[in-house]
Amino acid sequence: MTTLQSRLADIRERMACAAIRSGREAGAVTLIAVSKRVPVARLQEAADAGQVLFGENYLQEAADKIAALPGLGWHFIGGIQSNKISLIAELFQVVETVDRLKIAYALENQLASLDKIMPVYAQVNIGRESQKSGVLPECVDELVAGIQKCPHLRLAGLMAMPPYQPDPEASRPFFCQMKELADDLLQRGVVSQALGLSMGMSADFEIAIEEGATLVRVGSALFGERG
Known about the structure:
Elements: H1 3-21, E1 30-34, H2 40-48, E2 53-56, H3 59-68, E3 73-76, H4 85-91, E4 94-98, H5 101-114, E5 118-123, H6 140-148, E6 153-159, H7 172-187, E7 196-198, H8 205-210, E8 215-218, H9 220-223
Parallel strand pairs: 1-2, 1-8, 2-3, 3-4, 4-5, 5-6, 6-7
């Protein structure tokens, strides 16, 4: 077993244990392998080990990889610029960073021209950090409602990146807030079914799963540190 295969198996085992601790089935959480700055050969190795979903931040880098690795699933997890939306709509299966209505409506228009329906996540700035994208928690209703009015967008859930802190346990309150936010949207009838939660990265994905994550985005723990 290669180092990458061993890391992937370890991550999956840790995910399963965390899901069980949260009262869910072992396979309840989806792993997105964050593959920015990872060469194609390494992604192929991960794919050969059974990892089929990858997350990319940078559009041109992603375009080259998607062309080289057909048959895999790709999530866009980077910041969205209006002039890049047509290519994002064409290349990706899921967009996790819809952070404002302007982006939602522009993406809708592009998807309509492609006759394509896309799951998306509404990005929430749960830590209220000025340098990060996403709506503030008190503004999520408007974004969620707008997404749901777009026939080619399917609201899959909410996405967040808590503030970085050296102690992963310090992220737990933010993950709790995200779960409460998603539950509140359902209880108030803003959404008609439970929302997924994309939250948790290499350092804190187990804590995120314990607090309700349905999807985690793991890069360095799988591929190692990148330059």
